[in-house]
Design goal:
Layout lengths: L7 E3 L7 E8 L2 E10 L4 E7 L5 E7 L20 E5 L18 E5 L1 H8 L1
Antiparallel strand pairs: 1-7, 2-3, 3-4, 4-5, 6-7
């Protein structure tokens, strides 16, 4: 299991269903767009360039899985991975108030990913 201390924590907001924020991954700037979907009872995240063009669109945020894994064919995707972790290993899909409390989003750079494989 991935521990929170090994990655770059991605701050999230509480009690807001939609928001966008700027992040830096491996020295490159991106925008992350977060949206709560009432019908799916889940958070979805999109990765955009600074012009607002989608790089990765509407990924369901689930715990303990690399969220960009299927998108590394796209050269605009950051070289590392975003993962949502639940330190207590009790939830699979973070609910509306879980982000940044019961579930934490992290960015793991390539060096960290390689160290996990060892």
């Amino acid at each position: 299991m991935v521990e929170e201390s090994i990655g770059q924590r991605i701050p999230t907001l509480q009690g807001i269903a939609f928001w966008e924020q700027r992040v830096t991954f491996d020295g490159s700037d991106y925008r992350l767009y977060f949206a709560w979907n009432d019908r799916a009872h889940a958070w979805f995240m999109s990765l955009r360039n600074l012009d607002g063009d989608d790089i990765v669109s509407s990924i369901k945020i689930v715990c303990n899985r690399f969220l960009f894994k299927k998108h590394h064919w796209n050269p605009d995707t950051p070289p590392g991975q975003v993962i949502c972790i639940d330190p207590k290993n009790q939830i699979d899909v973070p609910q509306f108030f879980d982000l940044n409390i019961r579930a934490v989003l992290l960015y793991l750079d390539v060096a960290t990913l390689l160290s996990l494989d060892e």
